[in-house]
Design brief:
It is a single chain. The protein is built from 4 helices and 2 strands. 15% of the residues are buried. α3 links the parallel β1 and β2. With 88 residues, it is mostly helical. The longest helix has 18 residues. The radius of gyration is 15 Å and the shape is globular. The chain is 58% helix and 7% strand. α1 packs across α2.
Length: 88
């Protein structure tokens, strides 16, 4: 928490967005976490929850945030960095 740059309070806008995400089939707390990340303008939402990942991929056009598995995302980032280094 000491490294947090921003605190998001669960106001009415987050609760409404969370309920909309629940209608897509996201579990209650997952929906609230996603809503907080969206409203906080996070660059990325990382999770190891396979069910959440599958649903996020299915509804990616309705989400305002990229949802990824941390291990796969890190592999991709490292691969991209190596590709850039090789081209230099």
């Amino acid at each position: 928490l000491s490294r947090a740059h921003q605190t998001i309070s669960a106001g009415i806008d987050i609760r409404i967005r969370g309920k909309n995400l629940e209608l897509l089939g996201f579990q209650e707390f997952d929906a609230l976490h996603l809503a907080c990340a969206e409203i906080g303008k996070a660059d990325l939402f990382l999770t190891t929850d396979d069910r959440l990942l599958r649903r996020a991929k299915r509804y990616h056009e309705q989400l305002h945030i990229q949802v990824e598995n941390p291990s796969l995302w890190l592999q991709e980032v490292n691969s991209d960095e190596r590709f850039r280094d090789d081209r230099s």
